[in-house]
Automatic annotation (TrEMBL):
<feature type="coiled-coil region">
    <location>
        <begin position="618"/>
        <end position="676"/>
    </location>
</feature>
<dbReference type="InterPro" id="IPR027417">
    <property type="entry name" value="P-loop_NTPase"/>
</dbReference>
<protein>
    <submittedName>
        <fullName>SMC domain protein</fullName>
    </submittedName>
</protein>
<dbReference type="GO" id="GO:0016887">
    <property type="term" value="F:ATP hydrolysis activity"/>
</dbReference>
<feature type="coiled-coil region">
    <location>
        <begin position="240"/>
        <end position="383"/>
    </location>
</feature>
<feature type="coiled-coil region">
    <location>
        <begin position="815"/>
        <end position="911"/>
    </location>
</feature>
<dbReference type="Pfam" id="PF13558">
    <property type="entry name" value="SbcC_Walker_B"/>
</dbReference>
<feature type="coiled-coil region">
    <location>
        <begin position="700"/>
        <end position="769"/>
    </location>
</feature>
<feature type="coiled-coil region">
    <location>
        <begin position="531"/>
        <end position="568"/>
    </location>
</feature>
<feature type="coiled-coil region">
    <location>
        <begin position="425"/>
        <end position="494"/>
    </location>
</feature>
<dbReference type="GO" id="GO:0006302">
    <property type="term" value="P:double-strand break repair"/>
</dbReference>
<dbReference type="InterPro" id="IPR025662">
    <property type="entry name" value="Sigma_54_int_dom_ATP-bd_1"/>
</dbReference>
<keyword id="KW-0175">Coiled coil</keyword>
<feature type="coiled-coil region">
    <location>
        <begin position="946"/>
        <end position="1048"/>
    </location>
</feature>
<dbReference type="Pfam" id="PF13555">
    <property type="entry name" value="AAA_29"/>
</dbReference>
Length: 1216
């Protein structure tokens, strides 16, 4: 397989569409190329795109689906990846793409045949299956063959056995062998446990005898007849009870309705007051416009009076403020004079204080310098004293340690003799060790042979027992087969089984057609109900539409009246609005001066005193303007509702049509079924016919099932009989073979006993030699302890004795050095003490001078800061000047405001007099209207006023109560009519409801007892049938499980283990050998120096044969960085060969961590990769290292840009 071209769009940081063409001439001339760029720029995204196009998933993110796509670039609506590749079967192009419209859409995939220009497959799973077929590689094989993970082999070389086994299992996928081994172990264990449980369950079952079963059936039939009679009596009683109860409920309901009627009549009487109030309110609405106009004039007068009072109060306040400002100006002038005098006195003192502060500051710096010098010297003195104490302690400690060491050397002086005796002692101990190993081997052989002898003896006895058992089982099986043949004849009643099966097939074929008819029957019933619902809904929608149309007509009429009023009064409203807008302007006009609006110097309206504006008319006109908009909105809303009702009516009609169509469809289906089964199906008795057919099917199925069980048992017993005969012959042959082996083992045990006694004598001789050596060096110790430990103990004691002698010499040298160091430290101490005394004298002089200056400073300006004092004086002067200026401006403004306010007060007083005259006229007219409409006074009129909502509410309340009275009368009449019908139905019956209820309860109790007895008997019979069936099933299951367990026992002996190690180790050893073979083939092409071989001592471990060192075998742990890389690369290529099987791989991508290699190792690694050119492979290296960039000329660079985006630059790269 070879990758020819990659085309991708909006994958991670690679925004927009990109193409990389590996057929470009530069890739052909240089088959090794580099994919480079900064970390995180998107180098690995190119590999993700290849994997995504081929298999729909990536090594880093797994499968990409509708719910999860972290590959798509942010803020984009689509992404895709397309790979053109070549195999031995042809040239193909595979595409993966996904879009986002608000949410992610399911991914789409296509596979194209490029040469024939046609689509081979579409669909996620079908494309993946076809890609696997064309490439010959699954996703896992592809990632191990094309995208080589060499880092796994680097860790493989350095790992121990367990880690190496786990890594090999992970890389090669051999974990299946562990799972199989564990599964075999678990299955065998489970099967054994299940078999034991089933046998216990079989022992616990109890089945009824045929006589007991017949008695129970007879009792059940008797109770069923009693139940039928009791049911009929109970139905009659229920009917009488329900009718009587309904009669009583209706009588109670009539009583309640009559009470409600009395209540509503009383409420209607109480509402007479509300009627009178409603009439009064309507009279009040007639003269309400005059009242509103009068009220408006009263409000205007109150507003003018309040405005006048406010203006007069404001004028008094302004006068008072002017007097206060005048006094304040005088006080500010006085303050400024006092400040000038104070400033002349303080100036010289501030200058003097500033000079003293500078002197103090200079001396304080000198004081700090000497203080630091004293502290540093004192610290150095403390350090010297500490070092002196430490040195004295070391000297005393060293002298004590020397005394202890000399004592130890004197006590162990005899250990010097061990120097020559240790080699001889080691030689004797090794000879004894060899004798002990030989002795243990003989012991193991004796034990093994003894066990083998015992086992064979026991096996021969067991085989004789098995032979007798098998002979007995053979006779039992022959008897069972005869019995089963008789059971079959009895079951079939001498009929042919083929006839019974034919009848069973006929009944079973008929069943689904009956079930289909039942389903269609239920569907027809549901459709009829739905049609009735649609009819009711149609009538309701029609009524609602008519109501809405009537309401729309009413609203349109109201709108027409309002529009007529607005059109008739439009001119009048505009005149009043214009007068109202210019009313305030007219008040400021003066004769002879131009108007600011029109420019005229003559103002006739200004001279007219009584220009009246009808404010109530303006308000009424504005209300109608608002009302017209509201009516338009209401009409639009009602029209919308009518449209909705029409849509609902159309939908209702369409739904009904669909239901009728569905009904006809169901009837046609039933007709088709009748034609197929060739007889008429009566829907009325369909359930009974289905039940009858099911019973016949169950009976026939039971006969066939029992026949098959018996037939299978006969076949199984015949097979077991043949097997038993074979076992009997095998047992006889096994007994003869094992008896011969037993005689051979007894002879071998006798020879081993003689050799064992000879070895014991040799061991005693060597132990005597060791005792002589120990006595020679003056060491008394028993030989009871292990000899190796004795040798190591003596060796250790001798080495410790030598170490103590060396330590003694070191301590002597250290003692002399510490004594010299002590003498030097004492001289340094005297020098530092003299230095501290000199610094202290200078410090004291400076401190005294600073104290004198501070006393003089306090007398001059106490502790005040001269700069702050000057700043404060400057601020006071500025504040006084600003305060004076602000007060003068305020005084001038207040005088202007008071003059303007006096003018406004005069204008308001004049306007008030005009309104008071108009108010008197309006009030007189309103009082005349009150008398005309029978209102005693204004208060009586205001109390009679009601809003439109209140009038509507009272009217609605009165109408509702009238309607409620009519409804109650109708309900009472209807209930009485129902009672008469019930009495006609039940006739004359003297029994009361309580008496009927007692009879009913008695009958229910009786029926309950009968049904309990039926249920109890049915439960016993059902339980017995289940027990019989369970008994037979358990027998069959035990036989099946015993057969199955025998298979698992064989498998367990071969490959089973609890940890999976048994089969896994075997499989891994084979895989390991294959891997070495493939790796050496690739290693030979890279370098002829090394050959990989299997380590003879450790499992799953490599060694390397170095041909440049005369074929020396080296451990992989001793390889340099470059050598490790070459071996790792060969292993990775070997794995690629294993994973790709018979598929040719012509494209490789190495994503190894080159950044961990030094320059020399990196050079070796690149030379090794260059040698792969001989195989005509296109190899891509992913790295950001500068050295690799210099070595590999053909490069694809991924360059990051702002905003998390990257671009691709290089040969064969193009952007769309």
């Amino acid at each position: 397989m070879k990758i020819l071209k990659i085309r991708l769009k909006n994958i991670n940081s690679l925004y927009n569409e990109w193409t990389i063409d590996f057929t470009h001439p530069e890739f052909i001339s240089n088959s090794i190329f580099l994919i480079t760029g900064q970390t995180g720029a998107g180098k690995s995204t190119i590999l993700d795109a290849i994997s995504l196009a081929l298999y729909g998933k990536t090594p880093r993110l797994g499968k990409i689906s509708r719910n999860n796509n972290e590959l798509m670039s942010r803020n984009t609506n689509e992404c895709f990846s397309e790979v053109t590749f070549e195999t031995q079967k042809g040239l193909y192009k595979v595409l993966w793409f996904q879009k986002r419209t608000r949410e992610l859409q399911p991914p789409q995939r296509e596979l194209h045949d490029v040469k024939n220009n046609k689509i081979i497959e579409t669909g996620i799973n079908k494309v993946e299956e076809k890609v696997i077929e064309l490439t010959g590689m699954t996703y896992d094989q592809f990632t191990r063959s094309i995208l080589l993970a060499q880092g796994d082999f680097a860790s493989f070389l350095k790992a121990n056995y367990d880690e190496r086994s786990a890594i090999l299992e992970q890389i090669t996928g051999t974990q299946i062998y562990s799972e199989i081994s564990i599964m075999v172990y678990e299955k065998r264990k489970t099967e054994r446990e299940q078999l034991g449980l089933i046998k216990k369950e079989l022992e616990a079952l109890r089945v009824l005898s045929p006589e007991e079963e017949r008695d129970l059936i007879f009792q059940q039939n008797s109770y069923i007849m009693q139940e039928k009679i009791c049911d009929e009596e109970l139905a009659q009683l229920n009917e009488r009870f329900n009718a009587k109860k309904k009669e009583k409920d209706l009588e109670i309901e009539i009583e309640q309705l009559e009470r409600d009627l009395l209540d509503i009549n009383q409420k209607l009487s109480d509402c007479e007051i509300k009627k009178l109030r409603l009439e009064k309110a309507k009279e009040a609405r007639i003269i309400y416009p005059e009242y509103k106009e009068l009220k408006s004039l009263e409000d205007s007068l109150q507003d003018i009076s309040r405005s006048l009072e406010n203006k007069e109060a404001k004028e008094k306040g302004l006068s008072k403020n002017l007097e206060d400002l005048k006094k304040r100006l005088e006080k500010i002038m006085q303050k400024m004079q006092k400040f000038a005098e104070k400033k002349e006195k303080i100036g010289p003192l501030i200058n003097e204080a500033r000079t003293i502060d500078l002197n103090i500051q200079s001396l304080s710096k000198q004081e700090e310098i000497y203080k630091k010098l004293i502290n540093d010297a004192s610290k150095k003195k403390r350090e010297i004293l500490s070092q002196i104490d430490l040195t004295k302690y070391k000297i005393e400690s060293t002298k004590g340690r020397i005394r202890e060491i000399n004592k130890t050397l004197l006590e162990n002086s005899h250990l010097e003799k061990l120097k020559d005796s240790l080699p001889e002692l080691k030689s004797f101990i090794e000879m004894i060790k060899d004798l002990e190993e030989r002795f243990l081997d003989i012991e193991k052989n004796l034990s093994s042979k003894g066990k083998e002898e015992t086992k064979l003896t026991l096996d021969v006895q067991i085989e004789y027992e098995k032979l007798a058992q098998r002979t007995k089982e053979k006779e039992g099986l022959e008897s069972e087969i005869t019995s089963l043949q008789k059971d079959i004849e009895s079951l079939l009643s001498y009929k042919d089984i083929n006839e019974i099966k034919k009848e069973f097939d006929s009944k079973r074929t008929k069943k689904p057609y009956l079930e289909m008819c039942k389903s269609e029957k239920e569907r027809l019933e549901k459709i009829d109900l739905d049609i009735k619902e649609r009819d009711k809904e149609f009538e309701s929608l029609k009524l609602e539409k008519e109501r809405l149309e009537e309401e729309r007509k009413q609203k349109e009429h109201e709108k027409k009246l309002v529009e007529e009023f607005l059109e008739a009064n439009k001119k009048k409203f505009e005149e009043f609005s214009l007068l109202k807008n210019f009313e305030r302007t007219r008040e400021i006009l003066e004769e002879g001066k131009p108007c600011p609006v029109c420019g005229s110097t003559h103002h006739p309206y200004k001279q007219r005193e009584n220009i009246l504006i009808d404010y109530s008319f303006i308000e009424k006109y504005n209300n109608n303007l608002e009302n017209i908009e509201k009516l338009k909105n209401d009409i639009l809303e009602i029209s919308t509702k009518i449209s909705l009702q029409e849509n609902k009516l159309q939908n209702n009609f369409a739904q009904k049509e669909r239901l009728l169509s569905a009904k006809n469809e169901s009837l046609n289906k039933i007709q088709e079924i009748e034609n197929k089964v060739n007889y008429h199906i009566d829907l009325a008795v369909l359930d009974i016919e289905i039940e009858k057919n099911d019973i016949e099917i169950n009976n026939l199925a039971s006969i066939i099932e029992r026949y098959e069980v018996l037939e299978n048992n006969i076949n199984k017993k015949n097979k077991e009989l043949v097997s038993l005969k074979e076992d009997i012959n095998s047992l006889k042959e096994a007994i003869n073979s094992k008896e011969q082996k037993l005689n051979i083992i007894k002879a071998e045990i006798s020879n081993l006993q003689a050799t064992k006694e000879e070895l014991i004598d040799q061991k005693h001789s060597q132990e005597n030699n060791i005792s002589c050596i120990l006595q020679k060096v003056g060491i008394e110790t028993a030989l009871s302890k292990e000899l190796n430990i004795l040798y190591l103990d003596l060796k250790k004691r001798y080495e410790e004795f030598l170490k103590v002698k060396e330590i003694n010499i070191k301590y002597q040298l250290n003692l002399g050095n510490e004594e010299k160091n002590l003498e030097k430290l004492q001289f340094d101490l005297k020098d530092i003490e003299e230095e501290i005394r000199n610094y202290q004298e200078e410090f004291n002089k400076i401190t005294s001078e600073i104290r004198n200056l501070k006393e003089k400073r306090y007398k001059t300006l106490r502790n005040y800061d001269p700069d702050l004092c000057e700043k404060r004086l400057r601020e006071i002067r500025e504040n006084l000047e600003k305060e004076l200026q602000d007060s003068q401006i305020a005084f001038s403004n207040l005088e202007k405001d008071r003059s303007f306010l006096n003018g406004e007060i005069e204008n308001i007083k004049k306007k008030k007099y005009d309104l008071e005259d108009l108010y008197k006229l309006k009030k007189s007219k309103f009082e005349s209207l009150l008398r005309k409409h029978n209102f005693t006074d204004r208060t009586n009129f205001e109390e009679s006023l009601l809003s439109d909502e209140e009038i509507a509410l009272i009217s609605k309340e009165l109408e509702a109560k009238e309607l409620e009275r009519e409804v109650l009368n109708s309900k009472i009449f209807e209930r009485k009519r129902k009672i008469e019908k019930i009495r006609e139905l039940i006739g004359e019956n003297s029994q009361t409801l309580e008496e009927i209820n007692k009879d009913l309860e008695f009958q229910k109790e009786k029926l309950k007892n009968i049904r309990e007895n039926i249920g109890m008997l049915k439960q016993k019979l059902t339980a017995n049938n289940e027990t019989k069936e369970q008994y037979n099933n358990l027998i069959q299951e035990i036989e099946m499980r015993e057969k199955n367990l025998k298979k698992y026992d064989i498998l367990y002996d071969l490959i089973g283990s609890s940890d999976g190690k048994k089969f896994r180790s075997f499989a891994q050893e084979i895989t390991f050998d294959i891997l070495i073979k493939h790796a050496n083939r690739h290693l030979k092409r890279i370098s002829d120096r090394y050959i990989l071989t299997k380590d003879k001592k450790e499992k799953l471990c490599f060694s390397v044969i170095d041909n440049y060192q005369a074929g020396e075998i080296r451990s992989t742990k001793n390889l340099s960085g470059g050598e490790s890389f070459i071996v790792s690369l060969a292993l990775a290529l070997g794995l690629s060969s294993m994973s790709s099987k018979n598929v040719r791989v012509d494209s490789l991508f190495l994503d190894e961590g080159f950044g961990t290699l030094d320059e020399e190792t990196l050079e070796t690694a690149l030379d090794a990769i260059s040698n792969l050119n001989q195989e005509n492979k296109t190899i891509g290296i992913i790295s950001h290292l500068t050295y690799i960039q210099e070595r590999v000329p053909t490069q694809i660079r991924v360059i990051p840009k702002p905003g998390g985006k990257s671009i691709i630059v290089g040969p064969g790269v193009s952007r769309y």
